[in-house]
Amino acid sequence: MHKILLVIKREYLTRIKKPSFWVLTILFPILIAGLYIIPILLATKPLEKSTVLVVDDSTIFQKSFHSTENIEYRDAGSLDYAKAQLEEDNNLSAIIFIPARETQIPTDAFLYYRSDKPDVNVQSDVDRQLQEILRNNILLDVHNISAEDYALISDTKIKLHTRDLETGRDGFLEIKLAIGFILAFIIYMAIFMFGSQVMRGVMEEKTNRIVEVIVSSMHPFQLMMGKVIGIGLVGLTQFALWVVLSGIAIGGIQIANSDLFERAAEKQNISQIATKGVDATAQLEAVQNEAPLPEIIEGLASINFGLILSLFIFYFIFGYLLYATLFAGVGAVSDNETDSQQFTLPLTIPLLLTIICTVSFMNEPSGTLATWLSIIPFTSPVAMMFRIPFGVKIWQVVISAALLIIFFPLCTWVAAKIYRIGILQYGKKITWKDLGKWISSRS
Amino acid sequence: MFQAHHITKTFGNFAALDDVSISVRKGTVFGLLGPNGAGKTTLIRIINRITRPDSGELILNGHVMTDNDVLHIGYLPEERGLYKKMKVGEQALYLAQLKGLSEKEASQRLRWWFERFGIDNWWSRKVEELSKGMQQKVQFIVTVLHEPKLLIFDEPFSGFDPVNATLLKNEILRLKENGATVIFSTHNMASVEEICDDIALINKGQVALSGGVKEIRESYRKNLFHVQVKSDNTIQLPHDFIISQHGREGDLQELTIRIPKEATANDLLAQMLPQGEIKGLTEILPSMNDIFIEKVSNR
């Protein structure tokens, strides 16, 4: 027992001391902080003013384009004149040209832009206004409905709320989906990352030829488990640091830039009002659009993070142990990375398959496929983490957890048999047949 | 001190060891010889409890060996290495602790050995910065640090330059003087004659020859003698005394003579004495190298 602790200590400390560990530990929270702050910075960034020349030969759109906060529409007469102007004056950004119509309703319009100044904002605003003007025109001419009446009709909506039967609370399905994806992906990445670290560690010992010195002092099994546990602890340390550092980073941003948030929110309101123009309902809509933020917070609050975190730790630990011991077995039979590929494939397939299947879980988080995959030991860590935010029947969690716990010693037993023989085989290419023989051999 | 009784080990259909028995006397150096693939490394791994034999037993100091006995064994494998990215001192401490030394004890002993081998300023360097010879020294230190009663060296001289090989040889002999028992496998037959007391020659998984080095060489004697004699005349001998080599420098003649099986050195002397002044007479015993080749290629 004492020796396994020595191995764990060595595996843990040598990895914690590596600069790459700290680079990854610090990069992740920076990434999270970046994802958090960049949209806010973009929202507060003032847009450049653009001027668009309108040439309307169809006479439908004339003067109906209204300028917004950022885009000014100016009547320009003929297309040739407008083109000449656009070429001369680089403060102008584009020409919207609607040719004379051959039918009652025009079908084509053309946007000429300076090749040094393509502007997606201009394009989307022009497009929006074209459709709106055309629609209002038809409504008024053909159906005799005013723009104001139409706005009232089209903005009349009924909001569909989801309610959980048991709790009676909002379902927040989108938020749960997002959390499910994130959890499934993190556990998938973590098992892979730390599992292959175990594999590379074993391979290093084998190719360095240090392994024979070590196994003359202890059981190969102790060495293998020491390595698996040591690297697992590195993983848990990294998670803990990520959670703490990300929290600090986000908290820091919020405190340092509390006025930035206010400005961002304000800005959003103004631009929404501005783009909606003078519509009577614009104010109302702007207020409604603001709603998602508190809704997200409410949705997050409805999720049991204590349960998720404890299950995450459980599934990480046992999922990792299951795979890491097998990865150790693969490392023991491989002299180099290429050797290892034929054996890692069967290990990667169940994980990869589950992550792909999560896309289909979206429709049915408690469907047959999702349920089975969340119970089968090799796929359960990823599948179950995806399902947890939606609420999973307790017996399914219990069976899934129990199977995982039972399969861990089984995998370890198989891996240990391969490992024990594999690490002392040099220079010989090992086949599946050999593995079968080793596993079935008596110890 | 140590015995292996009737060790058998098969890998699939291949018998790596077939009923192998060896006996090592306390305080001696025991040479384990044999061609490549003869089963030496398998036997050594079995002694170190890395591999389990199919049958047979190992006796250490009169009792059947258990896992705890590995703490009293120092093993330098043929395939040996160190963690490249680890610091020399840390690594030596780690390996020493695996052999049951406390960190403090290991540290003290390591300082002593590092000084002795003149590598004390390498303590905080990474292994990958060390030359191969330096790494070999570190490996040797780690092998003997816990003062094991039984030392096992598998091809210890491979990869050593002559200076370090001599250093290693002297250290092995010093350890023997201090009471350690040494088993070592080698292809280097000259070193066998120099340092081994007993040997076992393993070929195709079986003990082909075993015993004391002196006795074995005696028993393989070819009745060859080297004689230096001062004489102006050509030496005349009976027809069954065969002169295989003959050199002459002035009146000093050097002869290599094969005498009949039943004859002795005295018979040879009796023939020679009347013919000149005998300056020297020595029996030429076969080298371990010759015995090795004869034994291995005969089978």
Give a quick summary of the entry.
The complex is a heterodimer of chains A (443) and B (299). Chain A has 443 residues and is mainly alpha-helical.
What does this structure look like?
The complex is a heterodimer of chains A (443) and B (299). Chain A is built from 17 helices and four strands. Chain A is mainly α and 443 residues long. In chain A, helix 6 packs across helix 8 (220-256), helix 6 (173-208) runs antiparallel to helix 13 and helix 6 (173-208) packs antiparallel against helix 15 (380-387). Chain A is elongated, with a radius of gyration of 31 Å. The two termini of chain A are 21 Å apart. Mean pLDDT of chain A is 82; it is low at 273-291. Chain B has two domains: 2-218, P-loop containing nucleotide triphosphate hydrolases (Rossmann fold, 3-Layer(aba) Sandwich), CATH 3.40.50; 221-298, Alpha-Beta Plaits, CATH 3.30.70. Chain B has nine helices and 14 strands. Chain B has helices at residues 40-47, 88-98, 103-116, 132-144, 162-177, 189-195, 213-219, 265-272, 288-298, and strands spanning 2-11, 14-24, 29-33, 55-60, 63-64, 73-76, 150-154, 181-185, 198-203, 206-212, 224-230, 242-249, 252-258, 277-284. In chain B, the strands form three sheets. In chain B, strands 6-7-8-3-9-10 form a six-stranded mixed beta sheet, sandwiched between helices. In chain B, strands 2-1-4-5 form a four-stranded antiparallel beta sheet, with helices on one face. A four-stranded antiparallel beta sheet of chain B has the order 12-13-11-14, covered by helices on one side. The radius of gyration of chain B is 24 Å and the shape is elongated. The mean pLDDT of chain B is 88. The chains are: A mainly alpha (443), B alpha/beta (299).
